[in-house]
């Protein structure tokens, strides 16, 4: 929230959780995903709730969770995941670095 000098406040950022998993997300989770990235405790909690409500409990058995902090990692039941790794730096880019290069990607600059 941002408060202006005149006392008015504005939300600079607002995220509302989805009421249910969208169909494409349900299909992807049912088929299996290699990685799940969590940037906040709230996003992890909402995702886990929506997955359970969709009847997909157990869908993460072969999925590696990549989390931005140990606090987020502590929220995950490690027995339900293929692995849980905590980012070495609390930066979203570090999570992407943990994924590595996509297949076929070349190193260096053109």
Topology:
Layout (H helix, E strand, L loop, with lengths): L1 E2 L5 E2 L12 H9 L3 E4 L2 H13 L10 E4 L2 H6 L7 E4 L5 H8 L11
Parallel strand pairs: 3-4, 4-5
Antiparallel strand pairs: 1-2
Any overview of this molecule?
This protein has four helices and five strands, in the order ββαβαβαβα. The chain has helices spanning 23-31, 41-53, 70-75, 92-99, and strands at 2-3, 9-10, 35-38, 64-67, 83-86. The protein is globular. 13% of the residues are buried. With 110 residues, the chain is of the alpha/beta class.
Helix/strand class: alpha/beta
The unreliable regions are none
Largest sheet: 3 strands, parallel
Major beta sheet, strand line-up: 3-4-5
State the end-to-end distance: 43 Å
Strands, total number: 5
Task: Provide a count of the helices.
Answer: 4
What shape does the CA trace take? globular
Query: Percent helix among the residues?
Result: 25-40%
Rg, please? 17 Å
Strand content bin = 5-15%
Mean pLDDT: 88
What order do the SSEs take from the amino end to the carboxyl end, as H and E? EEHEHEHEH
Write a brief caption for the model.
With 110 residues, the protein is an alpha/beta fold. The protein is 33% helix and 15% strand. It has helices spanning 23-31, 41-53, 70-75, 92-99; strands spanning 2-3, 9-10, 35-38, 64-67, 83-86.
Any descriptors?
33% helix, 3-stranded parallel beta sheet, 110 residues, alpha/beta, globular, two-stranded antiparallel ribbon, single chain
């Amino acid at each position: 929230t941002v408060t202006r000098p005149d006392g008015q406040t504005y939300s600079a950022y607002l995220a509302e959780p989805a009421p249910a998993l969208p169909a494409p997300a349900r299909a992807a989770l049912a088929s299996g995903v290699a990685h799940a990235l969590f940037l906040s405790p709230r996003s992890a909690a909402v995702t886990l709730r929506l997955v359970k409500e969709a009847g997909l409990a157990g869908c993460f058995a072969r999925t590696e969770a990549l989390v931005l902090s140990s606090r987020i990692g502590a929220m995950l039941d490690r027995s339900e995941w293929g692995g849980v790794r905590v980012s070495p730096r609390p930066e979203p880019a570090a999570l992407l670095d943990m994924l590595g290069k996509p297949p076929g990607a070349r190193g260096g600059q053109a």
